[in-house]
Amino acid sequence: SDTTPTALRTPIVAVLGHVDHGKTSLLDTIRGSAVSEGEAGAITQHIGATAVPLETISDMAGSLVDPEDFDLPGLLFIDTPGHHSFSTLRSRGGALADIAIVVVDVNDGFQPQTVEAIEILKRTGTPFVVAANKIDTTPGWNPQEGAPIQQTYEAQSSRARSMLDENLYEIIGDLSDNGFSADLYWRVQNFQKNVGVVPSSAMTSEGIPDLLAVLMGLSQRYMKEEMQIDVTGPGAGTVLEVKEERGFGTTLDVVLYDGSIKEGETIVVGGKNDPIVTEVRALLRPRPNAEIRTEKRFERVDEVTAASGVKIAAPDLEDAMAGAPVRVVRDRPVDEVIAEVKREL
Ligand code: GTP
Ligand code: MG
């Protein structure tokens, strides 16, 4: 079951890109939800988090992802806003990521926040793939619902295919202008050296199997080097939002990126004034495939391991801040942990 602690840390996949290029829609397609439709003007205004289990990924990816090939429990997707005014949230999302997807509207091509996203990933040294999204809007497109890209390519007229190719090569050229050697993903051997471009559609799910397969491959390789990460150590996370929750008062939506957190433990959280020292009253976990931003039926759990999105209920959280660090004290002197939190603010 999904409550069994696994030795491997769930990789964090940040989704970045220009406004309206389809970040939330791609996640909606993967997790089977309609978060984008519920957003005012389809504009994302907060960072989101969704745990997608390996089972969902292999169901979506069909023959391209065999669950037997992977030890990973799944992927934790971080949604970010593309609107230019939210650059702090993009940086925060990028900083959390192990790997990333940069979503580019295949007709619109590179736009200011596409470049901004790539700069963030360059700065943090985060490996990424590019989803060349909305391929279904190519004039004359013949959609193949849920098909891998090779299969849908074969179903297109040569005219539609060459229009798509032209747009894809434009994106590859823009990546190169920004300092990344890139190619269509099936021509890439080393995804840490070269950026793979994956044509996709959130509307028809075409190319989604390919996107998931590339992400799983990249995570597996990346996590191999990170296997030593001890998910049983004291938890470390970042506050996404400070929210009122009926019956719990002020709560924190947190991405736990390292270690574990247990009910009853002492935590230190960055606040408007001094760091807040408090005790975890309840840990509320979104269901698998649920976006923490919109989840209404949290599951109360005793412990959460990284990487996860989790709502933390505790006293005295009124002065907590989005973006602030959260640390579990556990066997350490509390002053040491307070100092650590202060350094990170
Ligand atoms: P921000 O979070 O505000 O940056 O936008 P976003 O990148 O999350 O875009 P979102 O997923 O909200 O999609 C914007 C619009 O594009 C919506 O109307 C979607 O329905 C549409 N859209 C997204 N992906 C596709 C696609 O693959 N094909 C088509 N035809 N439309 C798409
Ligand atoms: Mg969005």
Automatic annotation (TrEMBL):
Keyword Protein biosynthesis: yes
Residues annotated to bind GTP: 17-24, 79-83, 133-136
Keywords: GTP-binding, Initiation factor, Nucleotide-binding, Protein biosynthesis
Any GO MF annotation of the entry: GTP binding
Record-annotated Tr-type G domain positions: 8-223
GO cellular component annotations of the record: cytoplasm
Membrane-traversing stretches: none
Family, as annotated: Belongs to the TRAFAC class translation factor GTPase superfamily. Classic translation factor GTPase family. IF-2 subfamily.
Function, as annotated: Function in general translation initiation by promoting the binding of the formylmethionine-tRNA to ribosomes. Seems to function along with eIF-2.
Protein name: Probable translation initiation factor IF-2
Gene responsible for this protein: infB
